[in-house]
Amino acid sequence: MEHIDENALRVATEQFGADGIDVVRVGYSDLMGTERGRDVLADRFDRTVGDGVAFCRSIYATSPMGDVIDIAGGLSAGLPDIVVVPDLSTLRPVPWEPGVAHVIGDVYNPDGSPSEESPRQVLRRVIDRFAELGMRPIVGPELEFYVLEQDDTKPNGWGPYGAATGNVYVAGLKGDPENTLLSSLRDLAAYGLDVVAANHEFGSGQFEINLWHSEALDAADRAFRFKSALKELSRRRGKIATFMAKPFNEEGGSGFHVHFSTVDADGKPLFDDPNGADGLSDIARSAIAGVLAHAPALAAISNPTINSYKRFGPDTLAPWLIDWGLDNRSAMVRIPPERGRASRMELRLGDASANPYLAIAGLLGAAYLGIRDGLTPPDKLEGYGYDPTKADKLPSDLGTAISALEEDKDLTDILGPSFVEAFVAYKRNELERFGQFVTDWEFREYAYHL
């Protein structure tokens, strides 16, 4: 276990007084991407976190409804601890919570070994593989989400905020009557998340905020913090921000698009080649091929809920087939038109419910395998991207995707067998619980006539 550097800890605690910080929130990601954490008084921070903060290991596998799912080393092992050690390089004040600072923690087992189920550790594991190739992956996250407000006319009591038709890509009060998006953009910028732009998306109450690209771990940290922060900011306004893939039948889904490229140790971009096909290097083409080859397994991680697969389908602007194309938003992998340092791929597979650490780790793991094995992509998509005669379909449900992940031994090895085992157990339980639950659709469909 990496203990906190005592000098760095001393500097941090001294800075608390200068910045008026009296509480430090230590947070980390569970398997879902939900933030778990603890508030620590600043004047007790050094003695409390010096050897890490203990949490119950099974928090990784607690469902959204509070059920504790038994993963290896969890419930059946007597609910032992994990230890969270703050990464002080991530420490920063929370602009909307005076006196509070936030820090992201790395998770370890009590024996000091890294917790392989930790999503942040899964991503570190894949980044290390790129380092073996002399490469550093660069990532730019794009996340869509809905803001909901209380609406007693809706069955669940919540409806889209500022509901109106046709407010696609507008800014200002027209699509955001209370300026919640503008306020959030400013708050997130002050939080140091390197957000760059925001706009109303296709659906009523649906928005997108873009984050600038950076090295993969930093990009994932910022995306993780972004989701937690946006939910908190919405709660402060009496609303809910949801990254659920498709919250409404009548509205489109929310995507998590990830832009990815890689550079060498000196920062030279490795996806660009003016003499290569389509201006792309062999490394870029192999990365594309790797993502396509492992797409069914990637779906389990990038589309991790039962609801995720209701976002897919023809003419949805979400992918349906395993394909790639040049500046083609109907393809699963889109190659934006920029070249030079901006040469990159955009994976459009993921939905907003995905855990940022895992979605990025999955993409990088598949790309790494393509680069390592020198894979060659199939012909690129031309034109319409929803013709199933042109490419294989993505999994159409979570169970199929989970099976594909289990069967993809190469990707499992990259992400870590212990992590995949825990993730699959968690998701199989989700499928089992859903299979036993009577839905509104079933009652509407059957109760009157049958």
TrEMBL record:
Molecular function GO labels: ligase activity
Residue ranges constituting the GS catalytic domain according to the UniProt record: 119-450
EC number annotated for this UniProt entry: 6.3.1.2
UniProt keyword annotations, A-Z: Ligase
InterPro entries reported in the protein's UniProt record: Gln_synt_N, Gln_synt_N_sf, Gln_synth/guanido_kin_cat_dom, Gln_synth_cat_dom
PROSITE patterns attached to this UniProt entry: GS_BETA_GRASP, GS_CATALYTIC
One family name in Pfam for this protein: Gln-synt_C
Record protein name field: glutamine synthetase
